[in-house]
Amino acid sequence: MIMTEENSPVHSSMTLGAESILLVDDTVILRDRLAMAMRQRGFRVQTAGSYDEAVEVFHHSPTDLAVLDLRMPGKTGLDLLRKLLQMKPDTRVIMLSGFGSIPASIDAVRAGAVNFLSKPADADDILAAFARGDEPTVPTGDVSFPAPSLARNEWEHIHRVLSDCGGNISEAARRLGIHRRSLQRKLRKRAPEDPASPEVIDEDS
């Protein structure tokens, strides 16, 4: 394990015992930036921007690790997770999402992901999550979670629809059944906080 000046661990292909990694995200800039960082850490990197592209790439060159974006045009990261594990069951997978949803994280882990991380997550965050292995940060099993507020559910739904529309506000407003100006006002607001729980630290307290 490599150590930084701050004495915090930085993982590489050698420390994880993995030579290759697949990065799947429909945002090209983020995907390429992460790919560069992974190559610097010794990985053979494959990239894709959609479910179909990822399946094709993985079919020809399966990898030891995979990092999947949950929300993509077409089939989701969960669909891709299940498909990749059918093709190569020993591939270790991390799921990323810009929508930090507890139900989504539980679904990902139950479907076979090693862990679930909210964006933004850099290469060190992702590799550290792989290194934790069977100690996911996402609680599993019979655990009670506070229900997200209605405002939070609305915020996540709006951003998911907007993502599905490729950022087209007019089309998103049409699908949501609201006026374009109303949608613009909602998009200017910050994400509402979920109800506090013992697992969450309220920074304002």
From TrEMBL:
Q: Which SMART domains match?
A: REC
Identify one Pfam family in the record. Response_reg
Q: Where are the residues of the annotated region Disordered?
A: 183-205
Sites where 4-aspartylphosphate occurs are at D69
Write the record's keywords in alphabetical order, separated by commas.
Phosphoprotein, Two-component regulatory system
| PROSITE patterns xrefs | RESPONSE_REGULATORY
Response regulatory domain: from which residue to which, for each copy? Answer: 20-134
Instruction: Provide the GO biological process annotations.
Output: phosphorelay signal transduction system
GO MF term (any one):
sequence-specific DNA binding
Put simply, this protein is called Response regulator
Species assigned in the record: Roseiconus nitratireducens
